[in-house]
Design brief:
The strands form six sheets. Strands 13-12-14-15-25-24-23-20-21 form a nine-stranded mixed beta sheet, with helices on both faces. It has two domains: 5-279, Rossmann fold, CATH 3.40.50; 287-538, Rossmann fold (3-Layer(aba) Sandwich), CATH 3.40.50. The termini are far apart. Mean pLDDT is 91; it is low at 420-424 and 429-439. By secondary structure, the chain is α/β, with parallel strands linked by helices.
Length: 540
């Protein structure tokens, strides 16, 4: 146990109320008040991590710098706090049970009968305390909804931590719904009351309510919720839909969230300095210019699959006061309808990452269109690999060039699977076409070197840089000489691994193997995405 103050954020009534943004906003307010703040996401699902889940099932898989595949809320945390989080900042039921079962098999419980209480709950508490070490505050978001069977061991761990620590070292913020019934013409508090009753039945008394609502929460309803839920009225905070998630901390401050936080934790009453944050939010809400960006992907039924990338684009927009209008382009629609009808009129083209061969030809057609029409292009991960393949096919003349991901028997493996590589911890990793999917990709931050007088070097302003990766296949350097002779260059590399490609004669055509969106934040946009947006605006 340590002196870190812990705020637990739970949710009630229904899911998708915005617990992650609430947690990140509270953390941002505390960080801008001068406190060393970190965050933790608890996911009650049985998967060890979301790495093997379909993006259509769970949304984006976020990758930390130390190579953990995590929930997308970890991305929100990093973007709000301008920090790097680690593997220890995301806990799943799968991780907890795996550790307990491993210890049992090793005989570390000395023959005890292994049970949810105390063994599972103690393992959860150990993980929470470990992540909080060395910080003033840690905000813990518990996924799911109070009452879910999957979340019960975690709620018990929360209850025990609240009991173990001093009363003013822990806090529970309960995010709930206050629905507006149009027929009755009023907001209803009963769902929130029932949710709080369920939480109290478990043994946790909320200290603050964050109420999601469509309309302003009147003072009389705040008073009603305060009395019925045994909470101080100044700790009932409204959370209306915001025009941008980055406005939420400011809206919380306007509704007086800092005062109950300061009172509960016995903090000073000096409010956070968020002038720069507020300016960037104003730029997002009142942009001076605009561009159209063709976003070519194949998971467009669930935009959450590209969450970090969309946020990274908005970060650059906020920096330059640009409204980046996303034109969603399904790569399978390009295959059916033709590229010109879908992409014409756009100022720039971005081809995002992905897995599998569905929609690949549509992405290649989009890349060819950008190359031949001198339209600014950025390819990320698969978007770079396909740019490499497209150039080999249509410029170098190697018509059969492809990826072994799409054709394992190809005679022209422009993109291939290297069986051994060194991971972020310096250990040799083995992966083959039959390796388990989870954890066998190149994951986390890897350093690379940029070539002088290149577009990527101009963006990063440095020779050495590191960015995060999430992929199994690599661009084959065996084609490097023929490629460069035909006009495309390798502009960044990590030893023998190719990290970026460019066409020097093009207005701006860059592909990167890494995912620059994972390190972009509102206050510090990704350099390469930022340069892409700048060039696209200047080229109008």
């Amino acid at each position: 146990m340590n002196n870190c103050k812990i705020i637990f954020v739970t949710g009630g009534v229904l899911s998708s109320l915005g617990k992650g943004i609430t947690a990140a906003s509270v953390a941002t307010i505390l960080k801008h008040s001068g406190y060393n703040t970190t965050m933790l996401k608890i996911d009650p699902y049985l998967n060890v991590d979301p790495g093997t889940m379909s993006p259509l099932e769970h949304g984006e898989v976020f990758v930390t710098h130390d190579g953990a595949e995590t929930d997308l809320d970890i991305g929100h945390y990093e973007r709000f706090l301008n920090t790097h989080l680690n593997k220890i900042n995301n806990i799943t039921t799968g991780q907890i049970y795996s550790k307990v079962i491993k210890k049992e098999r090793q005989g570390k419980y000395l023959g005890q009968t292994i049970q949810v209480i105390p063994h599972i709950v103690d393992e959860i508490k150990t993980a929470i305390y470990k992540a909080s070490k060395g910080f003033d505050f840690m905000i813990v978001e518990l996924g799911g909804t109070v009452g879910d069977i999957e979340g019960m061991p975690f709620l018990e761990a929360v209850r025990e931590i609240i009991f173990e620590k001093d009363r003013h070292q822990t806090m529970n913020i309960h995010v709930t719904l206050v629905p507006y019934l149009k027929a009755a013409g009023e907001l209803k508090t009963k769902p929130t009351q029932h949710s709080v009753q369920e939480l109290r039945r478990i043994g946790i008394r909320p200290d603050m309510l964050v109420c999601r609502c469509e309309k302003n929460l009147p003072e009389e309803l705040k008073k009603k919720l305060a009395f019925s839920c045994d909470i101080h009225i100044d700790a009932v905070i409204q959370a209306k839909d915001a025009k941008t998630i980055y406005a939420v901390p400011m809206e919380f401050l306007d509704d007086g969230i800092y005062e109950p936080l300061a009172k509960h934790f016995k903090l000073n009453n000096q409010k956070p300095d968020m002038k720069r944050w507020s300016l960037l939010v104003d730029n997002l809400l009142k942009p001076q210019k605009s561009i159209k960006l063709a976003f070519v992907g194949k998971y467009l039924k669930l935009k959450e699959a590209y969450k970090s990338l969309l946020e990274a684009i908005s970060h650059s927009g906020a920096k330059h006061s640009i409204k980046v209008q996303i034109v969603w382009c399904d790569s399978e629609d390009i295959e059916k309808q033709g590229v010109k009808d879908i992409l014409s009129g756009c100022d720039c083209i971005l081809v995002a990452g992905g897995f599998g061969n569905r929609g690949i030809q549509g992405k290649i057609e989009a890349i060819k269109y950008a190359r031949t029409h001198d339209i600014p292009y950025l390819g990320i991960c698969l978007g770079m690999q396909l740019a490499y393949i497209e150039y080999l096919q249509n410029v170098v003349g190697i018509k059969d060039a492809t990826s072994v991901e799409f054709d394992k028997n190809t005679k022209e493996p422009a993109v291939y699977l290297i069986e051994q590589f060194i991971n972020t911890t310096g250990q040799k990793q083995l992966r083959t076409s039959i390796s388990p999917l989870g954890g066998t990709m190149r994951l986390g931050s890897y350093e690379f070197e940029t070539e002088k007088n290149t577009k990527i070097n101009d963006a990063y302003k440095t020779i050495k840089k590191s960015e995060r990766h999430r992929h199994r296949y690599e661009v084959n350097p065996a084609y490097k000489d023929r490629l460069e002779k035909a006009g495309m260059i390798i502009s960044a590399h990590n030893g023998k691994l190719i990290e970026a490609i460019e066409i020097p004669s093009h207005k701006w055509f860059v592909g990167v193997q890494f995912h620059p969106e994972f390190t972009s934040t509102l206050e510090y946009p990704s350099p390469i995405i930022d340069k892409f947006i700048q060039v696209s605006l200047n080229g109008k």
